[in-house]
Design a protein that fits this description.
heterodimer, A: 412 residues, Alpha-Beta Plaits, 60% helix, globular, B: 11-stranded antiparallel beta sheet, 16% strand
């Protein structure tokens, strides 16, 4: 018996399972962030890897995703924005998209554009977005792969663990202590609007071969890149995306504590909701323990919880599996579950393992429990996707402190 | 028991699935490049062409290391020029984009020039070190109204092919973000947005076609155009911005010129069959004539072919090649051992040498000596098939093919009888299959089919040699009672090109009311207008069809 086993045997199986998972995650974080790097890049990578590993340790051992998940998610989004903008400034000298970049297909492909691009791509073999098809991570084929993988693993969990746009909104919606505006009753209507917008952008994209959402509706152009406003049309688009950003990403989340852009406008989120059943993980409510206090309804940032869904034992398809409701439920009646496993309405055990036949079996059960595996999978996804930009931001911050310059490239 | 087994399977899957998901994510990212490459292979997408500049119409690769002008040009000594920066390695003409979908408000036409080495990023730090690109474009095939002189004074020190006078001259450089286009008569001048794509080392020029003169806008649709593409070193002090090239290189001047009239062009796109250095060395200092250059053709069937001025030379070269081939053939013929003309070995050798007439003579002699010789018949069939391939008219082609088949059929039959399943015993392409294909290809509704049938003297019904007899089937291609679109669709499908006529007559018949007389008249009219031969009129009564033999 090794020392590690002896040490583990002194603990509960669930703790041992969580510790083992944290060790694996820490290795993974090192591999994707710091391996093969040197100097300042290594320092930045290690900083980000350590941060991600710490977040996972808190989630795995504590048994509840929030608030550690929200800290990770918001930080990753905040780290993405300056790094991305700095990249644009270094390579182009400014944030705006130029005709040359469009002509050379050098516009980064964003996962939200998949929803409008996938149908023309399937029918016409044409990508209606001026992005590279392969090569860098922000090209079409890698992004398509990520999307398919997310469907098969975390489903709409992408929106609360991976999406760097959603992270901004999630963080902003978590800032106020209480909601000043209650839009809980509008949940069904907003979900329908979300699906209608998805239908509209897909059909309009097919009809015009233009990424309609990216052209007119995407609020995140304000923090990424946008087409140079040189005509009336350009100025209208600028006003549209600035207005949508302020309204749906800043003001309404602050007033309602809900992720309004994600639940109303985002076509990618709507697609994930529709195809979310492909994911083996879901959130379930134990109807036996639920006392219908409505705390989860108020806590859910996506308006996915309501009396009906509680009675069914499963939230609406718009659920992003963020786990905010787990902490809000005083009875601990909400948790992750496997679709193939227990049926809704039955007790959903978080990292348990006690009372099993043997220690080894209990350890294995704890390792394979969705309460541990879902955060592992989702955070791995988020950590790997954010690894490039976030680690780089850490490096840039170190450089800013040392040299007074945030830029590292040609635009410095 | 069975339910228990199912539950066990589900329970195992429920355990394995999340583990696969957890392990799968990091593994996926490790191999994401490989997976993306497989996805690329499977899906084969392309980016919407209006983003990238339109579909590629013509592409002219140019050799690396060809930036030596007359053959020995050297770069200017100042500003840190690097070899390859004036080396044009590819010129591409894209189809004009009439309605761009994103970011551009009007129609445009994109031309691209790729260089072996890209300029320094941001156009800064290189001083005036940049290539200058002149593209002269001929749009009118007639050449009327064009110019054969440089658009920029002495400019490049060149003359342009008199058979291809240019209509528009385009000047751009790697220095400024806007080039200029001007017409030959000087009546039109407009800026041309110029963009560097550093990743692909190409200079992109977008000619705006909105509000452009009609002649320039006429390129929409992919009409053939001729392009002179010239590259020089940038010198803002000179007209046309082409740096001078002297015998010895200077701070701003290139070196390696043969004489004072040597062109200032380091690289150009030369048409196939011509030599770049020969074109640039064609100046005549004695008479004061500049070097004469030829354009390349974009669009049209003869893209990238030589200009008419060079066609003579190309034809000469082709004639030489043909003469050499003929001489080789004669030599081979002379080397044949003396044998009887009827020897089938001789027939084969003559056939291989392409001496068709002599081969046919040998075949004739062979068949006279040995009637029905399958080898000789097979060779004759092959020769007839080759002649059919070269024949001009469709009717002539079909006649020769039919004769070829007659010979080949006879050869196969003779061979089968002689060898009983020997190597010639079974045709590789059964004749009936070919006939069926031919019939399908030339049926009345197909393009070309009607003309072919008319050329055969009649509707072509059964008269085409080798074609299966086509008998009219009652009820097909006829007007019918009622307005069922499905049924009418079938009838129209049979008639092919006569859809509109049929539709009109059907409407008239419907208006008149479906009576025996009306329907018969309409059908008679229809028969007269469509080459379908005699058919049996019929009427529909009580949901049943009655053929009217009278």
């Amino acid at each position: 018996m090794t020392d590690t086993e002896s040490a583990l045997r002194g603990r509960s199986p669930s703790f041992a399972a969580a510790t083992a998972a944290v060790a694996v995650f820490a290795y993974e974080a090192w591999f994707f962030n710091a391996a093969g790097k040197s100097g300042a890049a290594l320092a930045g990578g290690l900083a980000w890897a350590g941060f991600c590993a710490a977040i996972f340790a808190i989630i795995a051992i504590g048994g509840k995703p929030d608030p550690a998940r929200r800290v990770f998610f918001f930080t990753a989004a905040l780290a993405f924005v300056p790094s991305f903008i700095a990249h644009l400034v270094e390579t182009r000298g400014r944030m705006v998209l130029t005709a040359a970049e469009i002509a050379a297909s050098q516009v980064p492909f964003c996962h939200i554009a998949i929803t409008t691009s996938i149908v023309p791509a399937a029918l016409l073999h044409t990508l209606d977005f001026p992005a590279q098809l392969s090569g860098i991570r922000a090209a079409f084929y890698p992004m398509l792969g990520y999307w398919l993988l997310s469907l098969a693993t975390i489903g709409r969990g992408w929106c609360s663990w991976v999406c760097f746009y959603g992270g901004l909104e999630d963080g902003i919606s978590g800032l106020p202590r209480r909601a000043r505006m209650d839009i809980g009753a509008s949940g069904p209507t907003l979900r329908r609007v979300n699906k209608a917008i998805l239908g509209f952008v897909v059909l309009a994209g097919m009809a015009t071969l233009v990424p309609v959402y990216c052209d007119w509706l995407c609020p995140f152009k304000l923090v990424t890149e946008y087409y140079e406003p040189s005509s009336i049309r350009g100025y209208l688009a600028l006003i549209a995306f600035m207005g949508i950003f302020l309204a749906l990403v800043v003001v309404l989340p602050l007033l309602t504590k809900k992720r309004t852009q994600c639940s109303v406008l985002c076509p990618f989120g709507a697609t994930q909701s529709l195809l979310g059943r492909l994911s083996p993980f879901s959130v379930a409510v134990d109807t036996d323990d639920c006392v219908s206090c409505g705390a989860c309804d108020r806590a859910c940032p996506m308006l996915a919880m309501n009396p009906e869904t509680r009675a069914k034992g499963r939230p609406e398809s718009s659920c992003v599996k963020c786990g905010t409701c787990f902490g809000a439920c005083r009875k601990g009646a909400i948790g992750y579950e496997l679709r193939l496993g227990k049926r809704a309405g039955r007790r959903v055990a978080p990292v348990s393992g006690k009372g099993q036949a043997g220690w080894g079996r209990a350890f294995l059960d704890a390792v394979l429990s969705p309460a541990l595996l879902f955060p592992f999978t989702a955070l791995s996804f988020g950590m790997i996707i954010s690894s490039g930009f976030s680690a780089e931001t850490m490096t840039r911050i170190a450089k800013l402190v040392a040299t007074g310059s945030f830029l590292v490239g040609a635009g410095r | 028991m069975k339910a228990q087994g199912t539950r066990s399977v589900i329970a195992t899957a429920a355990r394995v699935l999340p583990l696969c998901a957890a392990i799968g994510v990091p593994f996926f990212f490790v191999y994401s490049t490989w997976i993306a490459a497989r996805l690329e292979k499977a899906l084969r997408l392309e980016v919407e062409p209006s983003f990238t500049g339109g579909r590629l119409l013509a592409e002219f690769p140019n050799p690396i290391g060809g930036d030596t002008g007359q053959g020995g040009y050297t770069y200017p000594l100042g500003q840190g020029w690097e070899k390859g920066e004036l080396n044009l390695v590819r010129y591409a003409v894209r189809a004009p984009v009439p309605r761009p979908v994103w970011g551009f408000s009007g129609a445009y036409w994109q031309l691209e020039a790729s260089f072996a080495k890209a300029m320094p990023t941001g156009l800064a730090g290189g001083g005036f070190r940049a290539p200058v690109l002149h593209v002269y474009i001929q749009i009118r095939e007639s050449g009327a109204g064009g110019s054969t002189e440089s658009a920029f004074g002495e400019g490049e020190l060149l003359r342009f092919d008199p058979d291809h006078p240019w209509d528009y001259a385009l000047s751009a450089d790697g220095w400024s973000p806007a080039g200029e286009i001007r017409s030959a008569d000087g009546s039109y001048r407009a800026p041309v947005p110029t963009m560097w794509d550093f990743a692909r080392r190409r200079l992109i020029l977008r000619i705006r076609l909105e509000n452009a003169p009609r002649l320039l806008a006429s390129v929409i649709g992919g009409a053939s155009t001729w392009h002179y593409v010239l590259v020089g070193a940038y010198d803002p002090a000179r007209e046309g911005h082409f740096a001078a090239v002297r015998r010895g290189a200077g701070l701003h001047d290139g070196g390696g010129a043969k004489d004072d009239l040597s062109p200032r062009v380091f690289d150009l796109i030369a048409p196939k069959g011509t030599s770049k250095s020969a074109e640039l060395s064609s100046e005549d200092p004695a008479s004061g004539n500049y070097a004469l250059v030829s354009p390349v053709m974009a669009g049209g069937p003869a893209a990238a072919g030589p200009s008419p001025a060079l066609r003579g030379r190309a034809a000469e070269a082709a004639a030489k090649e043909a003469a050499a081939a003929e001489a080789a053939r004669s030599r081979a013929l002379a080397a044949l051992p003396p044998r009887s003309p009827a020897d089938s070995g001789v027939i084969g050798e003559l056939f291989e040498l392409g001496l068709e007439d002599r081969c046919l003579e040998a075949i004739k002699a062979d068949i006279a000596a040995r009637p029905g010789d399958p080898v000789a018949l097979a060779y004759r069939g092959a020769i007839l098939a080759q002649r059919a391939d070269r024949a001009a008219g469709l009717g002539e082609k079909m006649r020769l093919v039919a004769e070829a088949y007659r010979d080949l059929d006879a050869a196969v039959a003779g061979s089968a009888a002689a060898a009983r399943g020997g190597p010639h015993g079974r045709p590789l392409l059964p004749r009936k299959r070919v006939e069926r294909r031919a019939e399908r290809r030339f049926r009345p509704g197909r393009p070309g089919g009607r003309r072919f049938r008319r050329r055969r003297g009649h509707g072509g019904r059964g008269e085409g040699p080798g074609l299966r007899e086509r008998l009219p089937r009652p009820g097909r291609g006829r007007l019918r009672e009622g307005r069922s679109h499905g049924r009418r669709g079938v009838a129209m499908g049979d008639l092919g090109g006569d859809r509109r006529t049929l539709r009109r007559r059907q409407a008239r018949a419907d208006r008149q009311g479906i009576r025996d007389g009306g329907l018969r008249r309409a059908n008679a009219e229809l028969d007269a207008s469509t080459d379908r031969g005699t058919m049996v009129p019929y009427r529909v009564e009580g949901g049943r069809r009655h053929e009217d033999k009278g």
